[in-house]
Specification:
seven-stranded parallel beta sheet, binds NADP nicotinamide-adenine-dinucleotide phosphate, globular, alpha/beta, 9 helices
């Protein structure tokens, strides 16, 4: 299967924000590759939903923290959909814990997925993305909030923001933009799991717009950066958070 549509690869797109980004880019005319780590059923269901709507879509299993998986994922997408135009680095994990109580394993897992995962895909994209392409990395507004428990997670995303700014310059001559989107709290498993109703309500009341973000709020910003109107935005971090910071 190859397609004349532009091709978008979205990491961590079996559920949450990534699945909504995949739906939105598909409705904007992209063929989409839906990466996931373990949740084949949800990734396959999303592919079936998009195929029903006439979209070229594939699911690709790969652990982004593994360079060999990422290398193979790019090859699969190129084989089945064509060369990639838009890379969305969305796959991520969040496990909050005070720094003093963070195990070596938790530290390593957070950095392996959130930071090395992005490094792995950016390194592939440097030679394999189509000229004129777009790269959008997911960071977080929690970097601006400095809440207790977020030291390691924020550290992983601070690195992603640093990669974004430098890589935008390293791609000079390719007409590829590299930006980051930094959401505030969004109602997905990643944010909701492990929180009480009261804690969720406190987060929801923080922004002046007085609600949690929805995946659609973030997908719209990603679609802007991936589309025609976002062409002149490069090397930036765009916060989408209802005004919380
Ligand atoms: P989510 O609902 O927990 O979904 C996470 C996705 O990442 C799933 O598709 C999961 O795949 C995938 N994934 C996890 N580890 C992976 C790995 N090693 N390799 C490939 N895929 C992997 O999370 P979300 O809330 O949508 O978050 C998406 C991004 O937004 C993350 O980078 C997160 O840090 C960022 N963000 C979220 C919020 C928020 O409040 N939700 C706020 C700021 C930033 P499986 O289904 O196969 O496990």
């Amino acid at each position: 299967m190859t397609t004349s549509s532009k091709v978008a690869l979205i990491t961590g797109a079996s559920r949450g924000i990534g699945a909504t980004i995949a739906r939105r880019l598909a409705s904007d005319g992209f063929a989409v590759a839906i990466n996931y780590a373990s949740n084949a059923a949800e990734a396959d269901a999303l592919v079936a939903e998009l195929a029903q709507a006439g979209v070229s879509a594939i699911a690709v299993k790969a652990d982004v923290s593994r360079a060999d998986h990422v290398h193979a994922m790019f090859a699969t997408v190129e084989d089945q959909l064509g060369k990639i135009d838009v890379l969305v680095n969305n796959a991520g994990v969040l496990k909050t814990a005070p720094l003093a109580q963070t195990s070596d394993e938790l530290y390593a897992q957070n950095f392996a997925i959130n930071t090395q995962g992005v490094f792995n895909t950016l390194r592939e994209a440097a030679t394999r993305l189509n000229d004129g392409g777009r790269i959008i990395n997911l960071s977080t507004t929690s970097l601006a909030l400095n809440l207790p428990g977020y030291a390691i997670y924020n550290g992983t995303k601070a690195a992603v923001e640093a990669f974004t700014r430098v890589f935008a310059k390293e791609l000079r001559g390719r007409r590829i933009t590299v930006n980051a989107v930094a959401p505030g709290p969004v109602a997905t498993d990643l944010f909701l799991n492990g929180k009480t109703d009261e804690q969720i309500d406190t987060f929801a009341r923080m922004p002046p717009l007085e609600r949690l973000g929805q995946p659609e709020d973030i997908a719209g910003v990603v679609a802007f950066l991936a589309g025609k109107d976002g062409a002149w935005v490069n090397g930036q971090v765009l916060r989408a958070n209802g005004g919380v910071a």
